[in-house]
Amino acid sequence: MNNALQMTITIVCSVLASSGFWAYIQRKSDKKDLQTQMLIGLGHDRIIYLGMTYIERGWITQDEYENLYDYLYKPYEAMGGNGSAKQVMENVKRLEIRRSPYPSRRETANENQQ
């Protein structure tokens, strides 16, 4: 083996074995964990707020339900969130679904084509 290759292998092994390298990796992991916790917390807050708003109102539109379930609750649940948000979603699922007072994108597109 030539000297350059030996020196490269030695440097790579030294870096991998150093505590500084592993501390750096741990800090990156901790930061990601904190970001995940923050996203779960924000998702939880928004699910509770919107869900309780719809429950108090007594009904929900299809668009509101899809936005709450598909774009907030499913990712929240996949990231490990649970608890009170799950209970709120169970109550939201039981609500009457009403037609939106605003035209949907589909309806607007159909009107424009005619």
Task: Note down, in words, how this protein is organized.
This protein is mainly alpha-helical and 114 residues long. Helices cover 79% and strands 5% of the residues. The protein has five helices and two strands, in the order ααβααβα. It has helices at 3-17, 19-57, 62-78, 84-93, 105-113; strands at 59-61, 96-98. Strands 1-2 form a two-stranded parallel sheet. The protein is elongated.
Write the layout of secondary structure elements.
Blueprint: H1 3-17, H2 19-57, E1 59-61, H3 62-78, H4 84-93, E2 96-98, H5 105-113
Parallel strand pairs: 1-2
The shape, in one word, is elongated
For the largest beta sheet, what order do the strands appear in spatially? 1-2
Beta percentage is: 5-15%
Q: Could you tell me the number of beta strands?
A: 2
Radius of gyration: 25 Å
Helical fraction equals: over 70%
Residue ranges: pLDDT <50 for 5 or more in a row?
A: none
Structural class: mainly alpha
